Amino acid sequence: MLKIKKIFSAFVGMAMVANALITMPFSAFADEEAAHTYTYNGYEVSYDVTNSWGNTEVVSLTLTNTSSETIEDWMLYFTPNGDVQYVNNAVQITDDSNGVTYFKNAGYNADISAGNSVTFSYAVDNCSAVPTDYEFVQSRESVPTSDYSISLNVNETWGTNFNGEIVISNLTDEPIEAWELVVNTNFTITAITNSWAATVTELEPYSYKLKGTYTSYIPANSSVSLGFTGIMDGTPEISDHSMTAIYADLNAFDIVLQCSEKKISTEATDTTVYFYAETDLEVSELQLVDSATDQVVATMYDDGKYSLHGDDMPYDGVYSCKMSIDNSESAYLSYYAKCVTTNSISNYTGIKVYVPLTMIDFNDMSAVDTALSNLYSQASYSSMTTEEKKVTVLQLLNTLATSGTTECPYSLIYADSIIFNGDNLYTFTYKCGVLGGARIEDFSSTEDGYGDRADDEVALANLLEEELTDGTDSSDEITLNTDGMLGSIYLMYAFDDAWRYQFYVDAEEDWTNAGMDVNFDTDVTVNDFKDIGKYNIAVIAMHGGDYSLGMPVLVTHEVFSTEKDALYAEDLACGNVTKAYGHYGIVSSFFTDNYNMDEMNDTIIVAQCCNFYGKGDTIDYCVSESMLDSGASTVIGYHNSVESIYSRNVMKEVVDKLIYGYTAEQAVESAKSLYGDCDGHITNAAYPVIDGFRNKMLHSEGISNGGFDEASTPIYWKCN
User: Fold this and answer.
1) Contact of 162 with 57, CB cutoff 8 Å
2) Domain ends where: 396, 411, 439?
3) 110, 114, 550, 642 - which has most CB atoms within 10 Å?
């Protein structure tokens, strides 16, 4: 695999959000057959557009196993030729090492037995072409012995018979999937007692292959146990062992491609884009290919001729070209790099060509926003039950989708886009393509977002005292006073509840006294999210929600208005910002569309908001992956709707420990030891999740530029 910087793909994270462009036809394939089937050696892929609205299409993919062997732990690579909004019954993964994005099973549908099929779906915006190339990329490989350990427990004996237990421990920060273990023993295994856990095959006397069934997925830093009965010949022992597991085999992508621009307006006069492909291949040139047509559109060189090709350094393994993009109409343009001599290809990367919002668009959005605001202000609405409010909001949205308002008597939103998110929000798309939302009720005052819980009363009755910091806070350990020279913290505070505020005032004082340069921002705007890379630590303290399945949203302090819509027109048009919960919300594509590679500058993100890592049974990494792909080092946040007191105290302990010299993972473990592994709910408990570089420290070894050459404050060189 290439030893290169982490490059982001055009399709970031597991569920990249909408790219709302406004002049595309109702369906990119309205005049074409929506269903296609592609046949390969041992499998078929059926592509079917099942729904569409505006520029969005819902695609169903069915994978059929036409071979005689089970397809295990399937992972499928293809380019969706557009921006993926959400994924159902699968997850979208971006590989950290090379930026390649692929689709992976959701766990419960990991295996496809001979003759059977699995189906997953995704919503894609501005799809430029039906994908035609699909490839399974899973591969069974040996697991290094350093990645796992095996132990044998003898629990009960009678004569030469005994009950034993083999424990397999995953020693890594990544899961081990679809494992198979071969063990050599001095005893005979007669049966697996927990037969649901694994199967056993005798290879030869005293040699067995164990294959995980319901235990086939071993989470990071976890173990599984296999109970068995056996016949011993002396003291039972395992003399040797080896393991294989399924991994994504992405080594075929030995070229990594990125581009200088990721969004271009249809009204832009300068449409020059620079493409860079990094590779270890020793060739004279590469080709840049349009993935929709498979036509070569440019040649890429590593010759140092910047004026001709945009290449600034010869023979450094980075091949470059520059070309003018066709921005005559809204589209998602997708490209890959190709080496003719080796037939190698790169990942796909893309550019959003979007139509700017007009004054008519702003006025139409304002009509929708005003109608919803008027509804919320009615006394009769306040007195309704939650279910009555839900029905009333839906009725208004249906009216806005059909007949509009008195001032704007025409359809103002797409009817097919009105979807209830399962908690507190109807999501919809304005006719101009912007992502909107109609809340049912305000955020809970005890939570950092809104979540549907079955045990609220029980949980609230067991909340910790309001001032949890007394006697348990670790701030007394932070005695390193270096006058702001330890680093910088961006404290983004976007709550309206007055009772929360003092906690953050105290935190700012603690961190300042400990030697940190703290920027305490109490009026967080959309533009503030473009400055995170200036700081060593960014604390995101605000409400969080779930805009739709696979689309967590960070809710700013900024109330939307027509004037602000004009200010954020580009990000609204590109689907990076939502208008929901009465405020602008940030979704995952915001970071990859507003940060170039590494611009987040190794920042540690500590997010204190609900649903940052999604909700329900599956952790959603789309926001954290987009931050990591933009240069952040480590991202810490919560899965599910989290209680405020738990979330803020865990956040404070994590930052305190980072200042004191702990790694990010050690800081999280310290916080969990103080406040618990989760927020105490019986149903849908919220718990902290860490993604990225777990051993990241605020005080890195060696010397790095502290920013004095840019006249930043504080002026220093960071060192250890």
Assistant:
1) no
2) 439
3) 642
pTM: predicted TM-score of the whole model, two decimal places: 0.65
Over residues 344-359, mean pLDDT: 87
What distance in Å separates the CA atoms of residue 208 and residue 499, rounded to the nearest whole number?
A: 62
Nearest to 578 by CA among 558, 596, 563, 595: 558
In a domain, 185, yes or no: yes
Q: Structurally, how many domains does the chain consist of?
A: 4
Query: Of the candidates 34, 128, 129, 571, which has an alpha carbon nearest to the alpha carbon of residue 329?
Result: 128
pLDDT of residue 80: 86
Kindly state whether residues 161 and 242 are assigned to the same domain: yes
Tokens 């390193």 belong to residue: 480
Indicate whether 481 pLDDT > 50: no
Specify whether 629 is located in the same domain as 704.
Answer: yes
468, 600: one domain? yes
Distance CA 553, CA 406 (A): 32
Strand 577-580 relative to strand 435-439, pairing: parallel
Give the integer Cα–Cα distance in Å for 496 and 508.
18
517 φ, ψ to 5°?
A: -90, 105
How confident is the model over 329-347, as pLDDT tens digits?
Answer: 988 888 989 988 877 788 7
CATH (domain of 106): 2.60.40.290
651 lies in the same domain as 510: yes
Per-residue confidence band for 446, with pLDDT thresholds at 50, 70 and 90 = low
* Spatial CB neighbours of 641, under 8 Å, sequence gap ≥ 6: 423, 447, 448, 449, 450, 451, 452, 453, 610, 611, 615, 684, 686
Percent of the chain residues topping a pLDDT of 90: 51
The reply to whether 106 and 237 lie within a common domain is: no
User: Domain limits at 467?
Assistant: 456-551+587-719
